[in-house]
Amino acid sequence: MNHSVHSTHPRAESIRIREMLLRYFRQGVVAEAGLIAHGRGEAFDYLLGERTTGNAMRAIEAAAATLLSAKKPVISVNGNAAALTAESIVQLARVVGARIEVNLYYRSAAREDSIQLLLKSVGAEQVLGVREAASARIPEIGSDRRRVDPQGIEIADVVLVPLEDGDRTEALVKLGKLVIAVDLNPLSRTAQTATITIVDNIVRALPVLVKTAEHLKTRTREELETITSHFDNQSNLNENIMAIHERLTHLADKQSSGTGPVHTSPSEAQPRTNLNELWRMKNVHKIIMLTAYDYQLAKILDQEDVDLILVGDSLGMVFQGHNNTKEVTMQQMLYHTRAVAAGVTTTPIIADMPLNSDRTEQEAIENARMLLNAGANGVKIEGNKTATIRALLDQKIPVMGHIGLLPQTAERYKVRGTTSVEAEEIMKDALALDAVGVFAIVLESIPEKLSKRITESVRVPTIGIGAGKYCDGQVIVTHDILGLPQTHTPKYVKKYADCGAVLKAAISKFKLEVANGSYPDDEHTYH
Ligand code: ATP
Known about the structure:
single chain; 527 residues; 16 strands; 12% strand; elongated; binds adenosine-5'-triphosphate
């Protein structure tokens, strides 16, 4: 029963995971009930849109901060967790200095051994809770899960329990431990009882947790405490429940408005990359973002499989012929976003929030919503405006940051971050944007050395324009690389074609043929 799933199958990833679980089931790592539990998780994953949401990202950040501040953190591992994320568990233990302990509902020496073996095969040095080592007992639990290691869970102050059951979560919390759970069901007793609940698939959540912990590792205790104190588990869970509600309402609306099965019409199609998962491309492949302001160019970019299309307010210069982007209005952005969306099937579209569209948080939310309704999948905001960005993220609006040279407010277009004071300011802005939860950061016109440092320090991808080769991706005005006439051509622009010359040649030939009577000829005339 080992089917190979074609990567283009719409459910390829979930089928791959199921088959992996089955393999581990046959090896004695996963219990029978583990297969059922996974199915229940998958159902919730479907409802959540099978992505790491902004809510999950916030819980992950709080979890990472809590683990890093813990004195004796322990990662409790069961069969499913080991089968699905053994490597991430071992990496996380290393980053946060946690111990790993096997804890099973269906305990048998053989399963304990298999799980221990699996963890060790991916680098675990020590695995607690195996066989006689699980000699202590947690009160109030009926199952074999009460057996814990006196060097591990029994003395832990923070326990990460991916895929836990409600009884044990409750018991651990009662013992005064901080419990971090990963559970796709925000309604489960585990989710509702844990101190921090990451409502996400463990397969996606654990690698992000590792990266987040790596990133937060240099923070002071005070900074970590600020992160945890800003996190409220109950409201995060409520947000998750609301997110499911909104998604279902949205899908039902689409069905009843006659657009039929949800992914069919091009403008309604789901983008092929979930913006909240753009971090996955970091260190994997360079992200390409190009600008478009109209249907035709958008269609070409979509067919060329660029990663992101930016409806940039650069249209003020490129399309309207101004010297800057300051005069672009919301109405113009909406008009161009609609035109671009008409040409795009699955490439995510990012629309710039133009100058003065975010003077208050409410105004920013309303304007960003309009851009999303016009066809954008996310918005880009210039500058370190953390409060506004947080307000947008709270409304589930994906936001891309933009620092370095900020054309909307810059007096002159010049390189930023060349002095150490300015470089530190830009670095701080990058960290702040990363922490607040933008899905990527544009770095414009800064020295390569600085963009390299930023790229290495933030979790999310950096996308450079005039920021050198170390960024995680590049963005550029498409008209610039096509060699079309511009009001301003910065140093970093490289022409990949001379479309200006191609257009001129075509126009001059047309003029000539009309003048000499060879156009329109018979072939191009109605008879
Ligand atoms: P509770 O006792 O907490 O009310 P339960 O009886 O459903 O819930 P279990 O049977 O232990 O508890 O269920 C496991 C939980 O793990 C389910 O809530 C399920 O949604 C969740 N789950 C299963 N697979 C995954 C996964 N891959 N990632 C995250 N959560 C998952």
